[in-house]
Each structure stands twice: as structure tokens, then as C-alpha cells.
Amino acid sequence: MKTTNYRLQTELENLTPAKKEWFKNYLKELLESDKPYYVKTDYIALSFLELDNKINYLAEEIKQLGAIRKRLQEAKALALEITAQTLKEYGIDRMEGTVVSSITVIPSKKRLKEHLFIKDPNKIMELGYVTFSVDEKALKEALHTQEGMQELDAFVELSVEEEYIPERLKINKKRNQSQ
Questions:
Q1: Letter string b/e over residues 118-127, b meaning 16 or more CB atoms within 10 A of that residue's CB
Q2: Do strands 168-172 and 94-96 pair parallel, antiparallel, or not at all (unpaired)?
Q3: CA angle 148, 152, 125 (to 5 degrees)
Q4: pLDDT in tens, 21-36
Q5: Residue 55: HSE in the Cβ half-sphere, 13 Å Cα cutoff
Q6: What is the pTM of this model?
């Protein structure tokens, strides 16, 4: 394990466009020094390799933090659902607090999700539902009308999926009184 940073490594890590000339002069001093060429080579290369190590280490840490963040978000969502269900079992739909304004049970609901399958894109575009490709937004709007449904029925299939959103807890924070 490396415990010290090379000066060149530190300079590399803090390099900005404003320090470009200074860094160039530092490299010139290094190259013109009395040290053997292989020492200079190792010094420069090891400084860059250490910078690569730090970049890779940080990339791995970011990846791990992303995984932890996702796990915590999933755990929080599950805990909010379970807490809401438990409060509901006790007949509680809202509780007042002193630090927070209140906690509220948001009832479950269902959301419809439409899936559009275009059988004949060319025919759809001939009918005027086009941007540079089929205009799906306009198609969906047209399919919700009687005329549009009759016109498009032979060329389009519309399926609707029902998504269940369970009840969950909402935490209502107190508002700042100075605002």
C-alpha cells in the first residue's frame, strides 16, 4: 500500500488550465535534472498510474454507493407501504406530530398504462399521424375519440395495463414560519 504521494502526482491532481504553464515548467525542470532517465521515466509513469488508481477506486466507490442508494430507496418504499398498512389496520389515516406536521396514509390506487402496437406504420403516416415517424401521442388521443377509433382500428392495437399502487405513508414536514 502506497502511503505517500509523489509531488508530480499531487500537481496532476490539482492541474487546471490556469496552471498549465507552471506545470509545463515543472516538467521541464524534471527532465533537465541530473537524475537518471529511468528514474525520471518511473517518476512520471508512476504519478499517472497512481492517478489512474484513484480514478478507478472512485469509480468503484460510486458504483457501490449507487447500489446502496437503490437498496435504501427500495427499503424505504417497502417500509412506507408496511407502515401505512399497519396504521390502516388500527384505523389511523393521519397522525399529528410536534417535529413534523403530520403523517398521512395515502390510499392505494390503480393506474392505467396504455401500450400501443402499430400494425401498419406506413398506412398510419398516410392518414396524417406523423412527425418523422408515427406520432404516437396523436394516435393515442385519436383512439380516445369515436371517429379516430373507426379510422385507425384496422391499423393499430391498443392494450391497457392496470398498475396497482399500494397505499403508502406520506410525511408532511412543518413549514418554516418565517416564509
A1: beeeeebbee
A2: unpaired
A3: 105
A4: 999 999 999 999 999 9
A5: 9
A6: 0.55
